[in-house]
Amino acid sequence: MNDPVVERIQANPKYKELREKRNKLGWTLAVLMLVVYYGYIALIAFDKSFLAQPIGAGVTTLGIPIGMGVIVFTVVITAIYVRKANSEYDTLTAEILKEASK
């Protein structure tokens, strides 16, 4: 594929900047998610008694709020990526496309 527009986009330093920033954030968030998720699974596998501790006088155990924390963490890092994409990455993409169409 030797499309001149594609070649201009790939040669644009802003495109390289966009790719680097997006990849860095994506990998960082992915690693954080893996650490949190697999950390929770490892806690289940290796320290069930810790998660089985009741909270207060009720029947809820410590594992429930920690599991909910994993879910909330997932939503938060997704929101971080979406906000970054909408504020910074979309602007860079529009600039790149504008420069490539000249």
TrEMBL record:
Keywords: Membrane, Transmembrane, Transmembrane helix. The keyword Amino-acid biosynthesis does not apply. It comes from the Bacteria. The chain crosses the membrane at residues 25-46, 58-82. Pfam families: DUF485 (PF04341). PANTHER family: INNER MEMBRANE PROTEIN YJCH. This is DUF485 domain-containing protein. The lineage of its organism: Bacteria, Pseudomonadati, Pseudomonadota, Betaproteobacteria, Burkholderiales.
